[in-house]
Design brief:
The structure holds two protein chains of two kinds. By secondary structure, chain A is an alpha/beta fold. Among the domains of chain A are: about 1-75 and about 150-220, Rossmann fold (3-Layer(aba) Sandwich); about 225-295, Alpha-Beta Plaits (2-Layer Sandwich), CATH 3.30.70. Helices cover about 35% and strands about 30% of the residues of chain A. Chain A has twelve helices and 14 strands. A six-stranded mixed sheet of chain A has the order 6-7-8-3-9-10, with helices on both faces. A four-stranded antiparallel sheet of chain A has the order 2-1-4-5. The longest helix of chain A has 14 residues, at about 105-120. The two termini of chain A are about 15 Å apart. Chain B has one domain (about 1-255). Chain B is built from eleven helices and no strands. In chain B, about 35% of the residues are buried. Chain B is globular and about 70 Å long. Chain B has helices at about 1-15, 20-55, 65-85, 90-95, 100-105, 110-140, 150-170, 180-195, 205-215, 220-225, 230-255. Chain B starts with a helix and ends with a helix. The interface of A and B includes residues 70 and 93 of A.
Chain lengths: ~325, ~260
């Protein structure tokens, strides 16, 4: 449905996006993940035909966005970072205008407007001026505007930015509902959003694609070993040697120390659950076991390790998450 | 075509949804009304004097020559002041609020957007000129002015306003700031207005050139009731050039932004 090949965008000497390639299949929800300024918005603007690319090609719904912009735009719905509302129009007027310029035939207009208002749950503000809407409603009107011409492709730039938690959940549900009829690209810098809504993710940093995969695969691929957090009251003794002696444990590091309580991060071989043995060892030594929990590498840490170059965060899995080259390989799949 | 109409309607509606249309038309009506009264009073005094001394009565003063022509000449000055306020927001506001992203990602060509905006502003200008016709209508109740010169004068005013709007659109497309757009537009208009000032003492070539460029000199014949194709061509090419510059500016913005 969407095919991006070696896309590059330069502003003078600054390169915003370099050699970005990916494919999105029909009906998929595809996530763009990256820190602010990574090139997400630039890529989306190229896909919607708002700005041209310096090099490379982008095909949306079968049409090249540069060679046949009108055809491509007819099949694309776009919600920019700030919903493009006209403050002095009412919601209905606004949607009427958008329907006209997006080419919805006049006979269907009224019915389409009613349908999208119902779908995005904005019926109750239909006659209100856009300038008087709350942030949540503005976002939803923005979404209504994007789907009014029933486009094949929906491009949403940070659709949940600035919403309260309840609205975020509602918006995500709405996006998931829309996925059946539309192919969706959404960008975000909020990680849970990606794992909750997207089927596939591309991670972009400084204009480069770092990885393209499903959220689950990304998590799994980068988890070379498992880590437990163990807090022990060892009466002032150093427990690291003893813990290191447990079968399957590969490394023990002290992570915090408070009032005689010491917390350790214990790494073990992949697939080897050492929790029982750890507990037995601690109790067997007559120490107090205060806490024992797995430290999973969250998408957040994956993200950080993929997008930070300098070595890192005291994250326990910093070593395991090093394989950035692997990530780059998948980018060209 | 329907796209152009949709944009033009939206533009016109937004003028009336904001205070702009009311301020522009209201202020225009006030000042125009003042001009009307002042010139009418002068006209009445003149014709009274003429009937007293000359004794030739009603045929002495021509309403078109002595009243309508100077009145509409003054309208051009009002247009000079008012039009920057109409055009300054057209592009600047869309860029500032981000709605330009909606327009440029809709299946519209740049040409459709520009022409729509141009026609929207022209419509507001047309409504403003309609107000001025009310006063002239009163003259028809009490006298017998010629109506044909009026048509040429209004055609001239429309073309003159079109030039202002096309330049205003172009300048508005260069910035995100309405005030900057308004001020720059006003400065350019005024410059085109007074360009002939250096003509008088700079030799015949410069004189001819500045006379040709002066946006207001071309109006004179329209005011007299003459529709000369030279002037029509001047205004139409001026408008076309302004719209062309706007198109180039919008397109280049795309590459730079």
């Amino acid at each position: 449905m969407i095919e991006v090949q070696h896309l590059t965008k330069r502003y003078g000497r600054v390169t915003a996006v370099e050699d970005v390639s990916f494919r999105v299949e029909r009906g998929e929800i595809f996530g763009f993940l990256g820190p602010n300024g990574a090139g997400k918005t630039t890529t989306m603007r190229i896909l919607t035909g708002f700005i041209p690319a310096t090099e490379g090609k982008a095909i949306v719904a079968g049409f090249d966005v540069f060679d046949q912009p009108i055809e491509a735009k007819r099949r694309t719905g776009y919600l920019p970072e700030t919903p493009p509302l006209y403050p002095d129009m009412s919601v209905v007027e606004y949607l009427g205008f958008v329907a006209k310029v997006k080419g919805v035939p006049s006979a269907e207009r009224r019915q389409r407007i009613a349908a999208v208002m119902e779908r995005t749950r904005i019926d109750d503000v239909a006659t209100r001026l856009c300038s008087k809407l709350s942030k949540g409603y503005r976002q939803r009107v923005g979404l209504a505007q994007a789907i009014i011409h029933n486009p094949d492709v929906l491009i949403l730039d940070e659709p949940t930015a600035g919403l309260d938690p309840k609205q975020i959940i509602e918006t995500r549900e709405l996006i998931k509902e829309l996925a059946g009829d539309h192919t969706i690209i959404l960008s975000t810098h909020i990680l849970p959003e990606v794992s909750q809504t997207c089927q596939r993710v591309v991670i972009i940093n400084k204009g480069h694609v770092v990885a393209v995969d499903t959220p689950d695969n990304l998590t799994a691929r980068l988890r070379g070993s498992e880590t437990m957090y163990v807090q022990v009251d060892a009466n002032g003794l150093d427990a690291s040697g003893t813990l290191g002696g447990v079968a399957g444990v590969t490394r023990v590091a002290e992570s915090d120390r408070r009032d005689g309580l010491v917390g350790y991060e214990v790494e073990s071989e992949h697939g080897h659950d050492v929790r029982r043995d750890l507990a037995r060892t601690v109790i067997g030594n007559g120490w107090g076991l205060l806490e024992l929990r797995p430290m999973r590498m969250s998408l957040e840490e994956i993200f950080l390790s993929l997008t930070t170059e300098e070595t890192p965060t005291p994250a326990p899995t910093a070593e395991a998450s090093a394989p950035t080259p692997e990530g780059e390989e998948t980018a060209h799949e | 075509m329907s796209n152009i109409v949709a944009i033009a309607q939206k533009e016109l509606k937004s003028y009336f949804a904001s205070p702009i249309a009311y301020i522009v038309i209201g202020m225009f009506a006030l000042l125009y009304g003042y001009f009307y009264i002042a010139i009418l009073a002068y006209f009445i005094r003149q014709s009274l004097q003429m009937s007293e001394f000359g004794g030739q009565g009603a045929q002495a003063l021509n309403v078109n020559q002595a009243l309508i022509r100077p009145l509409l000449q003054n309208v051009t000055i009002l247009v000079l002041f008012v039009m920057p306020m109409v055009t300054m927001r057209t592009y600047a506001e869309e860029k500032r609020s981000g709605t330009i992203e909606l327009l440029l990602t809709s299946p519209l060509t740049d040409f459709q957007i520009i022409l729509g905006k141009f026609l929207g502003a022209m419509a507001l200008y047309g409504i403003m000129l309609l107000v001025s016709m009310i006063h002239l209508g009163i003259l028809f109740l009490y006298g017998r002015p010629e109506w044909k010169p009026l048509i040429s004068a209004y055609l001239g005013l429309l073309l003159l306003g079109g030039c202002f709007i096309s330049v205003g659109l172009f300048i508005s497309s260069l910035t995100k700031n309405q005030i900057v757009a308004g001020m720059a537009t006003f400065a350019v208009f005024l410059f085109l207005w007074v360009i002939t000032w250096i003509g008088g003492f700079s030799g015949p070539t410069v004189d001819q050139l500045t006379n040709y460029l002066s946006i207001i000199n071309h109006y004179d014949d329209f005011g007299k009731g003459v529709i000369d194709t030279t002037h029509v061509i001047y205004y139409v090419s001026f408008i076309t050039f302004g719209l062309f510059l706007t198109a180039k500016s919008v397109d280049s913005e795309r590459w730079r932004s």
